[in-house]
Amino acid sequence: MRKTLNPTKTVHILLTFLLLATYGLWIGLGNRKENMVLAYSTTCPKEIANTPECLVYLQKQKEMIDKDKKNFSQNLSNEQYQQLSLLEKINYLDSQISAMERDIDALEVEMETKNVEIRILGKEIVETENNINTITQEINKLDNSIKKRISISYKYSFVTPVEILFENSNFENLLRKLKYLSETKRKDKELMEQMANQSKVLKQEETLLSEKQRSVERKRQQIEEEKTEQFKLKDQMAAQRSERASLYAESRRREQALLAQLDAARKAESSVEASIIKYIQDHPETMVNSGTVVAGSYIGQMGSTGCSTAPHLHFTIEYTSQPIGYASINPWGGYLKKGPDYWAIYGGWTYYNIHSGSFVTPLTGNAFLTQDHHRGWSGGAPYAVDMSSSDGTATYVRAVKNGTLYKGTEPICGGKYAKVVHSGGIESFYLHLK
């Protein structure tokens, strides 16, 4: 039986094409800004250098970069999510392609089977034609014999028994001639019957030959139809593979463009922060020591005071009703983000990069994790984290959110700290300041 493509499967394939084409149009007409690496100003214009306006200008540049970073990160997450959806569609296309490949294989088997049948019928047709030739020759021989006998019978058909009697005075000759005439009639009858039988067989063989020839033509026509269907399936399969590769390649290209933008924003942020740090170093009066601060305000410098063996920042979040540094709130619960990228892997430890969440990162430069969850210095809950930065000893600490700043020295080891009380009943704590 000749297989045909399932109509439901065809509809599914067409719908999939429409979905993929729509997705392709969407990503093709997306925000052109995502294909550009933006340029940022990381230093103050000459006319405001060494003035308070310079710090304001740099802070605004940093805010713009932070905003772009968040947008790039969000767009990157969206693109990666779209890739998951696209991969599901690609997997569906792969299953359709596999089904088409099976249909093509089945058609090839059917065509080869029909070719074998045609070869067998070809041999049978040759045998049938040989039989027809043999029967025709036998009929021709019978026909010649019958014609000869009819000629003799015709000759004696006008001689009556009385004439034979008068012609043959010898009784023995008379009997012989009568017997010969009787035998001639019997033989003529047998020949006529043989000829009729052979003619019947000939007609049957000719009918069989015609049926086999028609069967061969039908099978050849079916093979041509199946070849046409096979070519159609192969064209559809090639189109799906091309569409699949094109869409995924476009998505990957967009992802790489977003990664490049994010990387450029991070580098620009690092340069702006370096400019801010230099300005603060040149104008120390700009450092906030107490009072109202906004997210990103510089509130100190990373150090190693108190119970510390190397410069780093001990950071916690807790409720204002708890002791400072109690570490009762997990910073990875949406406040900050850990990884999945990392600064380095050394000694089996992965130094995951730290990114902004609802809080800005508390260190300038590229902040990375040096110790994950552990208990705070006051022996509280186990959600304290340690971090450092690529800026090294030049790293500055900044407020993670708007609030009120307080500074002091913890009583156990004498480490210098900063605390920012935020709205909503929470506070952030920064320990080991220089």
TrEMBL record:
Listed InterPro entries: Dup_hybrid_motif, M23ase_b-sheet_dom
Entry protein name: Membrane protein metalloendopeptidase
Keyword Coiled coil attached: yes
Origin: domain of life: Bacteria
Organism: candidate division WS6 bacterium GW2011_GWF2_39_15
Domain M23ase beta-sheet core: 291-324
Phylogenetic classification of the source organism: Bacteria, Candidatus Dojkabacteria
Gene3D superfamilies, per the entry: 6.10.250.3150, Glucose Permease (Domain IIA)
Entry's transmembrane regions: none
Coiled coil: 90-145, 202-236
Alphabetically ordered keywords of this record: Coiled coil
